[in-house]
Amino acid sequence: MRDVELRHLAAFVAIAEEGSFGRAAARLGYTQSTVSQQVAALEKTVGGSVFDRPGGPRPARVTPLGAVVLERGRELLARSAALGEAVERFKAGDGRIDIGTFQSVSSVILPTVIRRLRDEHPGCDIRLSEEEPDTPQIGQLDLLFYDGQVDGDVERVKLLDDPYLLVAGAGDFPDGPVRLARLDHAPMVAWPLDCDQPEMEEALARGGAHPRIVFRTAVNDALLSMVRAGLGCAVLPWLALRGANVEADPTLSVHELRPSLPAREIYLHWPAGRTLSPLASRAIEIAVEVAGDISGSA
Amino acid sequence: MRDVELRHLAAFVAIAEEGSFGRAAARLGYTQSTVSQQVAALEKTVGGSVFDRPGGPRPARVTPLGAVVLERGRELLARSAALGEAVERFKAGDGRIDIGTFQSVSSVILPTVIRRLRDEHPGCDIRLSEEEPDTPQIGQLDLLFYDGQVDGDVERVKLLDDPYLLVAGAGDFPDGPVRLARLDHAPMVAWPLDCDQPEMEEALARGGAHPRIVFRTAVNDALLSMVRAGLGCAVLPWLALRGANVEADPTLSVHELRPSLPAREIYLHWPAGRTLSPLASRAIEIAVEVAGDISGSA
DNA sequence: CGGAAATCATCGCTTTTCACGATGTCGGTC
DNA sequence: GACCGACATCGTGAAAAGCGATGATTTCCG
């Protein structure tokens, strides 16, 4: 008896609107006797009558106490309905999703994923963050694009292998593959030493290439401009080149490396052992799809 | 399964706050298995898991769906508690009351009633109205002071008999009772012809007094000023004289009438067959008490 | 004035649900 | 690997929901 029941309030409100227990029962799909008992239960919980029953064909009327219950009860029922709608919206895929992306890793994949997600779920609230802590971690994010290992208890899926290619000024190297050894002591511009970059430079070294890094920036356009200006060459993943539309640039030339470096692997991570929102699940599916399309178009 | 149950939401919120089914159960006074089943029922109604159960000593965590339910569920529970509080306040006597009063009928009784009611129930919302339709009716009022018959289905209690007295300029009549016959053709000021006034004038006529009414107004001060100015005398109920403090006025004299007129009867009315609010019930009690005190002090 | 109609309350009755205690299962810990 | 701690599940008795039938009132109408 400590608390009201929504069912009883629904019956009460229906009676107040219909003016009759029987009609309210019909509206709610109950019998008259059930509604009568529901009101009796409600009156027991609130500790007083909520209706005056004049008898005969005259309509039931709410008492002053009933008016108090009616006002608040309607609010309560409205909130209950709102909860149901919110759940339905959520299950339909609306809602909020926090996605983390680091550096330029996903300048090609992510926009497409976002657009398709928004097209499917116009009401959804997509939030992106590009924070880059020293140790990449998933934190409060729902999804995290990253090209390396992520701390914490995460699951992940590999989106694609992103091979490293050499970018140089047009004519700096003859067309076709370039041997790693030719990059030894060569001036080079490069990304800062996070993400997969240290691994890549170690792989260069293992191949006998110890380039002179003369400039580091995370901004791809700046790197490529430096290459065009003749400051040095660059070893960048294919995705970054595609994002900057390097293939169409006559002032630059792209070369495979021999032997090739181990490709950067781009993963999509999410917290392990936790239920994903429908939005997040769908985003993973879309990301895998988009990544497949991009790999296939190489 | 069409609707959530507040009980389930309470269990859900408690678990979310405690991080454990067992602790939540202890807090709510249930067993662990009961809250487990309550959550299961909730998950059935919303159609998905609301908790991730990592197993072992790690706390239960709400899923994205659970976050939606948690946010709305807290609102719902808050409204439910608000309903309970509103009911308690109502039963304690707070709330709203609409009181109707007509003309100067209650310029003596009503202020005292209001003050005592407000003292007892500081939170209450007392509304007075002095509308005067052609046919007095209770309408949406909770209480109605009136000195005559009221249309509609009402109950009433007589507050007091209010005898009519003659008011004249000091010295116009010798001290003591005045015979009705002496008022025949006398110039007189009087109230408009509503409330008990027509009955009173008929009673005058039956007693042989056919005064010349030279001025009518509902404003008592105006009437008494006219009496002082010598325009005529007035026959007014005792309450009105008391309200205007006529006894202490040396320029006026008050006389009983012989034979006396039937006293005006002042009633307090309320809608019949309807449950009264605690506030209204108490107001009736107070009004009867106050009227008794005033009659006794005559 | 008496019967018909409408309305809500009440009484058994069946089905469902609630809450409990005991037991099972799973993951982490020593 | 045995032992916790924590949640799920199962079986049981009590409580409640809901239904249909019946009863008590009141109004309406002849």
TrEMBL record, chains A, B:
<dbReference type="InterPro" id="IPR005119">
    <property type="entry name" value="LysR_subst-bd"/>
</dbReference>
<dbReference type="InterPro" id="IPR000847">
    <property type="entry name" value="LysR_HTH_N"/>
</dbReference>
<dbReference type="Pfam" id="PF00126">
    <property type="entry name" value="HTH_1"/>
</dbReference>
<comment type="similarity">
    <text>Belongs to the LysR transcriptional regulatory family.</text>
</comment>
<keyword id="KW-0805">Transcription regulation</keyword>
<dbReference type="Pfam" id="PF03466">
    <property type="entry name" value="LysR_substrate"/>
</dbReference>
<dbReference type="GO" id="GO:0032993">
    <property type="term" value="C:protein-DNA complex"/>
</dbReference>
<protein>
    <submittedName>
        <fullName>LysR family transcriptional regulator</fullName>
    </submittedName>
</protein>
<keyword id="KW-0238">DNA-binding</keyword>
<dbReference type="GO" id="GO:0003677">
    <property type="term" value="F:DNA binding"/>
</dbReference>
<keyword id="KW-0804">Transcription</keyword>
<dbReference type="InterPro" id="IPR036390">
    <property type="entry name" value="WH_DNA-bd_sf"/>
</dbReference>
<feature type="domain" description="HTH lysR-type">
    <location>
        <begin position="4"/>
        <end position="63"/>
    </location>
</feature>
<dbReference type="GO" id="GO:0003700">
    <property type="term" value="F:DNA-binding transcription factor activity"/>
</dbReference>
<dbReference type="InterPro" id="IPR036388">
    <property type="entry name" value="WH-like_DNA-bd_sf"/>
</dbReference>
